[in-house]
Amino acid sequence: MANEISEESKRALTPKKVTAITAFWKTVQQAAFTTDDNISIAYATNFKRPDKPYIVIVPGRSESYLKYQELAFDLDNQGYDSVIIDHRGQGLSARLTPNRFQGHIDKFDQYAQDLHHLLNVVLPIQYPEHNKHAYMLAHSMGGAIALRYLQLYPNKIKALTLSSPMIAISRGGTPNWLATSLIKTGATLNRWFSDTPWYFFGQNDLNKSTFEENRLMHSLPRFERFQALYKAQPELKLGGVTFNWLEQAVLNSDNLLNDIDKLSLPIQMLQAGSEHIVDNEAQLHFCQQLHKANESACPEGQPEIIAGAYHELYFELDQYRDIAIDKTIAWFKLHQ
Question: What are the sequence ranges of the domains in the chain?
Answer without folding.
Answer: 15-334
